[in-house]
Amino acid sequence: MLYKKIKAFLVFQFVYLIFLITFVNASGLNVKPTLYYWKNVPLGKSIECPQSINIKNKSNAVISFKVKTYKPSNLGLDIEDGYDEIPSKKWISFEKKHLTSNPKQTIPLKVFVNIPNKKKYLNKKWEVIVSIQEHFRPSNMFSIVNDVKLLISTITTK
Question: What is the pLDDT of residue 60?
């Protein structure tokens, strides 16, 4: 009977230790800004966002990330008042889609937009989500995802 109690206690401690290690490692990511208003975006050419997304690895481990775009409805998110979903998430691109960060390192991620030069896209307001996702590591029970909401408004006249 005592053997079973000791075994159960040790299993509990092992599971708790794995959870604690995973939580400490998973809490090491910080992304700024989480919301960015990008105003007066011109049409017909690739434009770099004036604000990079800064990804900080606060952990003591090397972490790799991938960057994706989503429409808010794909994530079940509400859209900001006065904005619509971006018609094509393909209009958003990045300097790199895969990044690796050393411990305590901050990596700036450059974001670009290229909205077609069509009159119907003048004076529009769109929302798109940029998602920074940690590549799965076997040492973690789950991976980190941080989202940045980009609110883009286009120029009013050509």
Answer: 87
Residue numbers in the chain where pLDDT is lower than 70: 1-27, 136-143, 158
Give residue 5's pLDDT.
65
Amino acid present at 127:
E
Largest distance between two CA atoms of the chain:
82
Question: What is the tally of structural domains in the chain?
Answer: 1
R_g (Cα) of the chain, nearest Å? 21
The range of the structural domain enclosing residue 59 comes to 2-154
Residue 55 sits in a domain whose CATH number is 2.60.40.10
Provide CB contacts within 8 A for 127, sequence distance 6+: 72, 79, 80, 83, 84, 85, 86, 149, 150, 151, 152
